[in-house]
Amino acid sequence: QVTLRESGPALVRPTQTLTLTCTFSGFSLSTSGMCVSWIRQPPGKALEWLARIDWDDDKYYSTSLKTRLTISRDTSKNQVVLTVTNMDPLDTATYYCARQMMGGSKPFDFWGQGALVTVSS
Amino acid sequence: QSVLTQPPSVSGAPGQRVTISCTGSFSNIGARYDVHWYQQLPGTAPRLLIYGDTNRPSGVPDRFSGSKSGTSASLAIAGLQSEDEADYYCQSYDSSLRSTVFGGGTKLTVL
Fold first, then answer.
1. pLDDT category, A103, cuts 50, 70, 90?
2. What is the pLDDT of residue A33?
3. Distance of alpha carbon B99 from its chain centroid, rounded?
4. Would you say residue A104 has pLDDT above 90?
5. What is the distance between the alpha carbons of residues B89 and B37, in angstroms, rounded to a whole number?
6. Among A16, A27, A29, B41, which residue's beta carbon has the most beta carbons within 10 A?
7. In percent, how much of chain A has pLDDT > 70?
8. Residue of B62, B31, B57, B32 lying closest to B46 (CA atoms)
9. What is the DSSP letter of B103?
10. Interface mutation vs chain B, best among A4, A47, A64, most B CBs within 10 Å
């Protein structure tokens, strides 16, 4: 079955870089049409899409955050990595990775449990 | 402020029917991009509820239904149950932003 799991630091200092890893199973990111996105949710607030990486290694970023985001993949390890530079307390959120098939207009059919990241000095 | 607009809250008594709206524009819902809906129970990840405007994944009760017209979409929940109390989000794609977009979320309270 398809599973995704986020991992990374629970606490980050302001100005530091956050690195999150999504480890997945039950599908291959090398398979045509497969995509993995990162989505975040500040406490008590709405979901916000951040970035997506596709089966062909194409990458897409949120317009408002693209200068701070980098998404990459390791297909041999079934992992997708997101880095966020210059972290700020406003970046405190639960970060989710989720699977899509065939691009950004499609639904997220499987989600990880989420990783809460707090930005504080 | 989210690209897709949802009411912050809705409520209904057990057994009643409620609807949640999701209003977009000509660069997203109006451009005929699919609308998808998610249910998020407290402390859990979102769960896909409706995809492609009107379709239910396996395991989702037929009490949940979706519709779309023009630049808006709606989620209807019939026969409200206490376990339906959750946050609900719509999702689509915006061609101007070239990105996936979410609504601001709607909190459903079962009275």
1. confident
2. 94
3. 18
4. no
5. 6
6. A29
7. 100
8. B57
9. B
10. A47
